[in-house]
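Quick one: structure for this chain?
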Amino acid sequence: MKADTITKDYISDTDVFADIFNYYIYGGQQVILPGQLKQKDSTKIALPYGADGAVVPVQKFRDAQKLCTVKTDGKLEYVIYGAEAQWEIHNAMADRNNLYDALEYAGQVTAAAKSHRKAMKKEKEDRRDR
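Got it. Here's what it folds into:
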């Protein structure tokens, strides 16, 4: 729908995106600053198994997703905010958002596992070289 496309473009603007979350999460306080936000690829791919055991690729797109870097207690924290724009009420939106979140978490777990394997391989090679 054209209205959804226009709204998606609108909420992707960094200033608007920050305002949305500042209003809904922080009661209008300017907690999230536009300069803290970086565009994040909102495409997620899952490879669930079908009824016959075959892999069935699924690709999902969140309307807008940004990474926010926040410094608290001298440490950096990374928060991912995602937004969906709907022109009309869609009763499955909560389920879709849960799916997007689950796919994001799964991607983070995969990246962490890959990083851990790489570090372990390097450590093993370093011990061998001594």
